[in-house]
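ARCHIVE CARD
Drawer: 12
Card no.: 0347
Subject: one protein chain, sequence and derived structure
Cross-reference: see card 0346
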Amino acid sequence: MVINTNPTAQASSDLLAASSVNLAKSLQRLSSGSKIITPDDDSAGLAVSMKFEAQSKRMGAAITNISNAISYTKTQDGYLGQVNKALNRMSELAVSAQDVTKGTEDKALYDKEFKALATYIDDIAGKQFNGVSLFTTDEKLVTTDDTTGKFTMNGINLAAAEYTSATGASLTSNTSAIDALTAVKAAITQLATDRGTEGASLTRLNYSKDQLTVQRTNIDAANSVIKDVDVATESTNFAKQNILVQSGTAMLAQANTQGQSVLRLLG
């Protein structure tokens, strides 16, 4: 029997320290919701998780870009719908102005409404969305993924000759009314083409947004498997470590009392 060294107490102390560290980690996992508290918990998993998180953030930014492009396109189409109504009325006025029973004053009234609608269309041509022109020949490259993927949206130009010829026409005479009708019909044909192009862009953007949303959800799910704590499993582990700490404390106290038996020998 020795008194300078107590290996039993030392072993109990070491086990208690290990259990205390494990208990603290378990408590941190439960309180943070993450099973990777320090890099040494899962160094490879942490590296993969960081990449997944960065990719998810990029995808979120791309989804926002696409959503803004969709809003831009819908705003654009809202104006084009009004242009369509205006052109339809202008074509109606151009036909009415060719009525042989209408005099000069009647034609002047038709022309007045015709020009008012033309001014309305010219005004729409200058509209903007967040400071960006809605109607221009410029193409717009929309980010469609988290790397370099792009989709090209074709520009719609209300200053094109087909539109300006219609808005610049008049109904002051039978001849000018015929010319105006021809110009307005050409503008309606161009508008149909432009709205078809716009609709195709909107469809493409919606598909890209849906695909990115699904992909981001899958990336987040994969990251969750690596990083997020399983509360049920960790709660069981916490209970286990808590018991080990309590029992280790009790056993250390027992080991420390063994040396007291030496006093009985000395007495």
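Annotation on reverse: Strands lie at 128-129, 132-133, 140-143, 150-153. The radius of gyration is 39 Å.
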